């Protein structure tokens, strides 16, 4: 098996195990958020019990959807391995507890817009973060919309992350407004998820900020109308030690003031995983007052841009589609384009510092 095949194989083994654990509804504690019966509001001691007996009792006593959600996190922190199913919308009126142990949540099929089914949402009311984890646990979120968070909808500092079929809408934060994956964390796998109108108000990564992780994949995702104050209107990645894969994903109308209207990737770890951009489209992204309308890649990495299309991107200071920033020395930036490079590439400081080829071989087998 060649290197790329091995990478995909490892990534898919990881995805498969994550999918399996994410979709066992109920888990061993058998708790379903939507099935918790309402209790008499006046029951004495309910609030105390909510804090005290967390394995199941807290969920039974919780009244509002918001309290049930908080109780689910508290139960997971106490060791429950249930996959929680949220069957109502939640608008936060206070911060949720931090996630400290493995936590899996899934939106149920009960929420409606008129008669049409839609994802249930958790709304941060433009005041609160939604899911926050600092511990190295595993967080899995499926079929939910996370919206209007302030400070990051999913702020998952060191946890492994699995996100499937979600939407992140109108979140704001200093950086990584939808999904923040900080230093020292595990792998990530994000599938069939849309990121719309998320805004990094101070820094990089309008929707997603990734720093020095192992690696991971965004597959079949949509990034639309996200913006960053500095780099990477949709995603900013400050490198990982293992491959970073973006596949079959569409980036439309994202913008950044510091370069890389859709993506910016900068190496930051001693070992730098290759970056694969496969079968994806970049349309009308914009680097405002900066370079690289769609993508910026910086020195000391290997980038593989394969079967991807570019149109209508704008780099107002050059590089309508890409800016490739090389460095001196033997660790220069290498990029292959398959089948061939788009126009609108700006080389910094100039073309001698970046190695590029038009070839499909370094892509490995392309996804069909
Ligand atoms: C947490 O999840 C990870 C990744 O799925 C798994 O390897 C680990 O065993 C889980 N930990 C617990 C305590 O269940
Ligand atoms: C997101 O913000 C836009 C623009 O303000 C608004 O039109 C839209 O309804 C908002 N969507 C959600 C889900 O809050
Ligand atoms: C991306 O755009 C293409 C072309 O419009 C479309 O066929 C594909 O379904 C889109 N992908 C996603 C994940 O929405």
UniProtKB/TrEMBL annotation:
Q: Name one Pfam family in it.
A: Chlam_PMP
Keywords for this entry?
Cell outer membrane, Membrane, Secreted, Signal
This protein's source sits in the domain of life called: Eukaryota
Report the leader peptide range. Answer: 1-22
Q: Does the keyword Transcription regulation apply?
A: no
Q: Where in the cell is it found?
A: Cell envelope; Cell outer membrane; Secreted
- What cellular component terms from Gene Ontology apply here? extracellular region
Does the record bear Coiled coil in its keywords?
A: no
- What protein is this chain from? Right handed beta helix domain-containing protein
What is the organism of origin for this protein? Chara braunii (Braun's stonewort)
> What taxonomic ancestry is recorded?
Eukaryota, Viridiplantae, Streptophyta, Charophyceae, Charales
